[in-house]
Specification:
alpha+beta, 6 helices, 8 strands
Amino acid sequence: MAGASATGVLSQLSQLEVEARSRKTQPQQQQQQQQQSRVKELKAKVEALRAQRDQLKAEIETHKHLQKLRESLDKQSTHEEEEEEEMEQDSEHSQLLRLMARHTQLDDLLYAHHIIGGYNVTKTRQGKGVYVSLATAYDGVFLETYNLEIDLKPTLRISRHNVPPFIPLNSLAEQNNLQTNIRTFLDTLSQHLNAFAGRKQQLELLKELHKSVEVMESNVLCSILVLLFNLPKEKTAVLCTLDYTDHTRSLPTRVHFESEDKKLPDSPEWKKNCSLLKETPVHKALITMKKMGNIV
């Protein structure tokens, strides 16, 4: 009996020792998991910041180029005025050279204006109308070009165009008073077209780069986008709705998550995902979410 009692005591002591080791190991494992998760989050944030930095650098370079062209054009104009004062008569050859140089500078200036979302205007029908060409671009890539023909007499009127029907062309013309402020109208129209082109291009890149993300719904204006996210190691999926209510921007103004896990959308992790999707193009935001381990 004494031997059996001793065996029981030893067995209990052994079990207590195992439990003590287990309690000691669990906090260490939890701490390691938290550190790994934090490292992933920081790496993803660094990638997102690098992408924003590169985009800002490209925009700064474009504006610098445009400013240099303007300064050069101003200097050329001043120089020409000084030459005209000093010389009453000039040779035909010199005048031709100046005109060629001025033409080159204007072409460069128009190109710079073109690549930052501007437009080109040329006269048509012996000055009775103008032909406007509006180019769209996203992330340094030229996309579609849209054209308008505007009659100048007896009043300004859009006679022909190939602007998509879901862009409110007539409404924009009325809101910005086409008759008295055609430049504001063209600037606003260019914003709408470039924003649409940007949203459309993001959707194409999303489908190309993220095969595991299912596009459940989208419209022709690309102002509503519904995506289905699959979560790693879980059967639960997340339905994400991106609402682009401001049609002059290519980023959503509202992001909404739905899941069978009712607590998930309000968790700190998914609140960060919400902010990320509002501040970053969707195809780039999903790359960050994958690196953080939030979606498959």
